[in-house]
Amino acid sequence: MNRRRLVALAFPALLAACTGQNGALPRAAGPSSGAITPSVEPAATTAPTPSLQGTSSLSPVRFVGTVSRIPADLSATMLNRTWHPGCPVPLSALRLLNVTYWGFDRQAHQGPMVVNGSVAEDVVSVFRKLFLARFPIKLIHLPVRYVAGQDDPNDSRDYTAGFNCRPVVTARGPGTRWSQHASGLAIDINPIENPYVTADQYVRNNHARPYRDRSLRRPGMIHPGDLVVRAFASIGWRWGGYWASDKDYMHFSAAGN
User: What separation in angstroms does the CA of 247 have from each of 18, 91, 194, 250?
Assistant: First the structure.
């Protein structure tokens, strides 16, 4: 008989670097991840089952990707934090995903993410590919409120996340336009291992600075033409690592900026 083990989710905050889209500047930012004993039978399913806890009992471990409307308790958590009136999209346009992924601990986990409903199924297909390839993700996490001027260069949190109603944020600080994250059309993958690097090689986060050296081949890093870049390219999304001057190695978006 197969064993099942549930591990609870964790909830805190992200310091991400990303880019955007035109619009006026707001104020913006929510919970999590769970562990499952690994096994080696990756199969894919998509079901409309919401879960804020992001835990699941799967035996043998296989990919599960669910898409659901934003539930009332998550809406209340997001209100005036990661979403507020005036954001580029209404809450009704967003969807909650729960996807299986391989952690740095080589265990299978189930994690939540919020994205635009128009790309929800496509995003699930990307994470299915990453799971089948066993690409490691530190922690898939719901968005947290971004507050300009409170970027801690010693923040060691390493959250893979999607929607966040906030402006463009670079290694030098926030911009004046909406980020693609504010429309739920961008995702950051392992921001410590894939930092925002300016044209003059500045990286704000101290923990991410060793990863400025892109010749490294460490778990969770993204490189030109690799499976992560190809998976997002398959749904028409582009990578910030291909930008001409500054490089946002964590960032994938529908518009490519």
Answer: 10, 30, 9, 9
User: How do 159-160 and 139-140 pair as beta strands?
Assistant: parallel
Q: In what order do the strands lie in the sheet with 167-170?
A: 20-21, 173-179, 167-170
Amino acid at 248: D
What is the per-residue pLDDT across 84-114, written as a single tens digit (0 to 9) for each? 999 999 999 999 999 999 999 999 999 999 9
DSSP assignment of 106-175, as one string? S-EEEEEEEEEGGGHHHHHHHHHHHHHTT-B-SEE-----B-TT---TT----EEB-----EEEETTEEE
Q: What is the pLDDT of residues 167-206, one digit of tens each?
A: 999 898 888 899 999 999 999 999 999 999 999 999 999 9
Quote the CA–CA distance of 137 and 160 in Å, as a whole number: 7
Structure tokens that stand for 237 in this block? 């999304």
Domain segments of the chain as ranges = 20-253
pTM: 0.79
CA 36 to chain centre: 20
Give the residue ranges of DSSP H helices in the chain: 72-78, 120-132, 227-233
